[in-house]
Design a protein that fits this description.
Length: 246
């Protein structure tokens, strides 16, 4: 709008300038040097007035053009601002139109968050139960290890006891054999003593007709025991004595 107004003002200025140019040319053509009775300065004031008015109009036209340019810029900025605000309003209207869907989605998301929180609590409870189960399994494994260690120690102890029992048994048997041998030697020595004494008694009886009574001492009584008497001793001397006619 202001651009067309500026073009119209420029057209008027161009028309006025062309009229002044034609008027000046016509005056130069009608005046001749021979007509000296004509007042040459008769239209100077009028021309000065028109020139002054034209300069004023030209200056006002330039100011109007500048104002029109600034107003056009302001209107353009205002139009852009209005367009931007219109776009924003349209976008807000579109968002407001989608607001029910957004609210529905928001409620759905809140419900999902609630269910997810419940799942988190269940998972946390499961993790706690898993930790308890892991501790229980570790305790059972430790108990089994202790039982195994105890069984191995018991088996080792039993093996050591059996080995010691075998060694003690062998040692006892060796000692018993040694004791039996010692007793056998003592028994044979006593039997030899008794046999020699009996032989001496028989000899004394044959020579003197009587048997020397041997006084037993407490030591002999303590040494003489029933189990020390050997019934399987050699009785040949006793038999020869009894069968001797003399």
């Amino acid at each position: 709008m202001f651009e067309s107004l500026r073009k119209n003002i420029q057209t008027v200025q161009d028309g006025i300038t062309a009229g002044f140019q034609r008027l000046s040319v016509g005056e130069r053509n009608t005046i001749s040097p021979s007509e000296s009775h004509v007042n040459l300065s008769a239209g100077a004031d009028l021309l000065q007035m028109y020139q002054t008015q034209w300069a004023t109009m030209h200056h006002m036209a330039e100011q109007n053009a500048k104002l029109a340019t600034s107003i056009d810029s302001a209107i353009t900025e205002l139009a852009d601002e209005c367009e931007s605000q219109h776009s924003q309003m349209a976008e807000i209207h579109s968002l407001l139109a989608h607001l029910p869907n957004i609210m529905a989605q928001l409620h759905s998301m809140l419900a999902t968050i609630g269910s997810t929180r419940g799942l988190f609590e269940e998972v946390e409870g499961g993790l706690l139960a898993l930790e308890d189960l892991e501790e229980e399994l570790a305790l059972q494994e430790q108990t089994l290890d202790l039982r195994l260690s105890l069984a191995l120690a018991r088996e080792k102890h039993n093996h050591r006891l059996n080995s010691l029992n075998s060694e003690l048994k062998v040692l006892h048997e060796a000692k018993m054999i040694s004791v039996e041998k010692h007793k056998e030697v003592e028994r044979q020595e006593r039997q030899k003593v008794f046999s020699d004494q009996f032989t001496e008694d028989i000899k004394n009886f044959k020579e003197h007709g009587e048997i020397t009574r041997r006084i037993s001492t407490p030591a002999d009584e303590s040494e003489l025991k029933l189990e020390d008497v050997d019934l399987d001793q050699d009785n040949s001397e006793l038999d020869s004595f009894l069968n001797d006619p003399a």
